[in-house]
Amino acid sequence: MKLLHFVLFYILYDITGAKANMDAILNAMKQCNDKFPVSQEEMEKLMHEVHDDVSDNFKCHIKCIMELEETFENGTFVDENFVKEVMEVPLLKDHQADIKTATDECKKQHGLNDCDTAYEIAMCIYGRLPEELATGLLSML
């Protein structure tokens, strides 16, 4: 995701913290995939920036991960938590301004339901990041 997911992936500064955090992220992804299975085909479409015909399961999968990472609560994007978590990723520290700007521009996105809202926010942020940063985030999925 991209993010998203989201998203979706925070590494702490020291090696021990990084391993524990990566384990938590992988656990979150497994939990969410158990609840909202996403096909390999759908993940590949995202990696090739094909965002049409995205399944509800995929959108809910993103929302699930965001909830477990405490960046989406009660139908609301918690932008402070998102920025804080992303800034802990060593590769992203030099892009704080880009991430903050994208977050500020996208945090008010709203979809038809909570899953759609989480997906819209994630894709909005992804679409506003510099290409090399977005590609790096996507490769972490």
From TrEMBL:
Signal keyword on record: yes
Domain of life: Eukaryota
Keywords: Signal
The keyword Signal is assigned to this record: yes
Biological process terms in GO annotation: olfactory behavior; sensory perception of smell
Cellular component GO terms, alphabetical: extracellular region
Entry's Gene Ontology molecular function annotations: dibutyl phthalate binding; odorant binding
CDD domains in the cross-refs: PBP_GOBP
Identification of the protein by name: General odorant-binding protein 56h
